[in-house]
Every structure is written in C-alpha cells, then in structure tokens.
Design a protein that fits this description.
The chain is mainly α. It contains 21 helices and four strands.
C-alpha cells in the first residue's frame, strides 16, 4: 500500500462537513477582517492604488494586516484572516454558504500546517506567509468543488513555492503586508490550477527535499481535531503586535487595581515577545506597534490603547514614559507559550500576571465587542456610520459575497 502523506491526511480532514455554528463563527472573522481593511484605507499602501491598475484583492490582502489588528491563532503563531478572506472575496458568483465553507477549510489548512512549524522555522520564517499559501490554495480548491486529489495537488503546488523571511523585522518596510498579498496570489493560483487538473507533490511537507527538511529542525506532529480550528482563533482588541497584548492587559489590570502606574514598571513575558517587541525607542508607527515599552507607556499615561496612541505624535509624547518601562523574559511564562500568551507586570511593589490575553478563547471578546471593534476601525478609516452598518449587515446576515466585493471596491476607489 502506498504511504499516505501528511497533505493527503489533511485533505481528508478538510473534506468533512462544516456546521452552521462554525459558519456563524466565520462570519465574525469576516467582519473583523472588513474592519481591518477599512481602518487601513488612509495608509500609504492604499496610495499605491492611484498608480497601479490592479485587482481589489491585491490591496485588501495587504490592508488587512496594516493596523496589526487582524485575527491570530496562538500555537501556529500566524494571522489567517487577511490571507483567507482576501483570497475569497473576488467578486465571483458563489453562494455565501460556499464561501464560508471554503473559508473555514482555508483557516483549518493554514493552522494545521502552521502549528507543525518549530522554533527554528519561526526564527527565520513568517508563519503567516509560509502556511498562508496552503490555506489560500485549499480555500480556492474547495470553492471550485475540488475532491481530495485536487486539494492535495493545490496544497502541494502552494507549498512548493512558499516562504517569507523575517528580515523585515530588522528594517522599516511594507514587506510583512506584501507577504500576505503573495500568499493570497500564489496560494489562490495553486488552488485554481489544481482545480483545472495541474498536479502537485504529495509529500511537500515531510519529503526529503520538502518544507520541513528545508526550514525546520524538529517539526511538531500534525493533529486533526474534531472541532474546526477557526474556533481557536483569537480576536485582537489593540492595534499592536499580539506579542505586546499580554503586557497591555496585565498593565491595564494593575492600573485598575492601583489607580495609576507611577514610577518604574517592569514587564516579564515569554521569549518571543522579547525577541519581537523589545523596542525602547521606536522611531515609526510600526516600531511603536512592536514595542512593549511603548504599549505599556500608553496604558500608564493614557489608559486603554487606541490606534492614535501608536501614531507619530504619541511616539514623541511618550518618550519619558517609555524610559520607565523595562522588560525581561520569564522562563515560566515562556514554558506556557505558544499555547498561552502571558505576561507579568510589576509597579509600585505590586504585580499582576495573566496567562491568557483578551480575545483568546479563554477570554473571548463577545459578539458585541467584535462589532464595536469593526465600527471603530471603519470610522478610523474615514467612512461614515452607514458604511459600518452596511459592512456589519453584509458580513453577519448577507447571502451575497459579490456585494461585499463591490463594497470593498467602493472603499478602495
């Protein structure tokens, strides 16, 4: 008997039915992504649209990640939303149920693959980019009604060209957003061509010259849970890197307990949060979003973080407050990561430690909170309340994906 590959096992797992409760969960993630896209309408990336005649999906893919408020899956350390929704909101004539089912399967493929990557992979590779192509490919192949063989070829083709190096963490650039666009475009292309008969490698993950051999030291086992993993995906309430959120939450709780955060503030958290977000002197908006010191300074001086708190004026205004914040790794918190993103914040002789972060399944944002977040983002993007109502209705109640594509086209025009 021919050995079954991991990609074939994953394809079998993807083909099970999607239940209505999971489709409703997908609608919330769709709304969350629409809010992220709308909120980034005034970014420099959208200004490219004035000079480049390209598809709407190209820009929504990048815009969905600009504000660092896109959804996140913890153990795979990636953002599935901006890849999957930009891949599917292409304006073609599909039923909403078909699109939602494809999205759920796309999320599942992204997470299933991403959760197998080890520390060596994450040290150099952007998991959203690496695993994202698998999800985009699976979603498009499913939308075309692909069978198991088609799904395997789609993910095999996608995996054969995937990548995305973290060098952009060391420089100021738009590369992180472009990775999303590349995952959408290349993964979507793989799904399309596989649906029309092109074949891909079956052992793209574990083969002798496959992705694991090239990028991992010891990949983790792939698992196939009964519940669709979109239910594990977290919503982000704050406009900063998710690695900064545990410190934000703990600082907010400590401030509420003490009434203020005066004097020196010390943040203990997991190693990756230090690696990504130890930036005591941010020079740009993206630096501030990846700065533990700035995020905690915002809480100390201003309270609940708003998007404006990561803009240039706030970066300049909070210089002294950032100087009061020190950070270090705590081995006990690192030991719980990536299943749990935690932090301990100490100020004035008192500490608050949180194991999980607001928006995680253990500390979920309610539906009303997700809707409020979308409203705030849409307003931040310069759209009026009627557009927020429109987006909420189309995402949560609508049955016409083309209407969402048309709305996005209007937002980006």
């Amino acid at each position: 008997m021919t050995q079954e590959s991991l990609t074939e096992k994953l394809a079998t797992h993807l083909m099970r039915p999607v239940d209505e409760a999971t489709r409703q969960r997908a609608r919330l993630h769709l709304l969350d992504w629409l809010g992220c896209v709308a909120g980034a309408r005034q970014s420099d990336i959208l200004k490219l649209n004035q000079n480049i005649d390209d598809e709407v999906s190209t820009f929504v893919a990048m815009l969905g990640n600009v504000l660092e408020m896109d959804d996140i899956h913890r153990s795979s350390i990636l953002h599935p939303g901006p890849v999957i929704w930009s891949t599917l909101m292409v304006g073609q004539d599909y039923l909403m149920e078909e699109v939602l089912n494809a999205a759920v399967r796309g999320y599942e493929a992204v997470i299933a693959v991403g959760a197998t990557f080890d520390d060596k992979h994450y040290a150099y590779y952007h998991n959203t980019s690496t695993a994202g192509q698998f999800g985009a490919a699976a979603a498009v192949a499913d939308l075309y009604g692909g069978d198991k063989k088609t799904l395997v070829s789609a993910m095999g083709l996608a995996g054969s060209t995937t990548g995305g190096l973290w060098q952009m963490r060391n420089e100021t650039s738009d590369t992180k957003q472009w990775h999303i666009e590349r995952s959408m475009a290349a993964g979507g292309s793989a799904g399309f061509y596989a649906a029309h008969g092109l074949t891909g490698p079956r052992f793209i993950l574990e083969g002798p010259q496959g992705l694991y051999a090239a990028t991992c030291k010891k990949p983790k086992p792939m698992t196939f849970p009964d519940q669709w993993r979109i239910h594990e995906v977290s919503f982000k309430p704050w406009g900063a890197c998710r690695h900064a959120h545990p410190a934000i939450d703990a600082a907010l709780e400590l401030k509420a307990k003490q009434g203020s955060l005066d004097g020196d503030i010390h943040v203990e958290t997991y190693a990756d949060a230090i690696s990504f977000c130890d930036r005591p002197d941010p020079q740009s908006v993206i630096d501030a979003k990846f700065s533990l010191q700035h995020a905690v300074a915002v809480v100390a001086e201003r309270g609940v973080p708003q998007l404006v708190d990561f803009e240039p004026d706030a970066i300049a205004a909070l210089t002294d407050a950032r100087s009061r914040v020190t950070v270090s790794e705590a081995s006990d918190i690192t030991a719980r990561y990536p299943e749990h993103y935690g932090a301990r914040v100490t100020c004035g002789g008192e500490s608050v430690e949180l194991t999980d972060t607001l928006g995680d399944p253990e500390r979920p944002l309610p539906k009303e909170g997700i809707i409020d977040k979308a409203r705030a983002l849409i307003a931040w993007g310069g759209l009026d309340e009627k557009e927020a109502d429109r987006a909420i209705d189309l995402a949560l109640n609508g049955d016409d994906p083309t209407a969402i594509h048309e709305m996005l086209s209007e937002w980006l025009s």
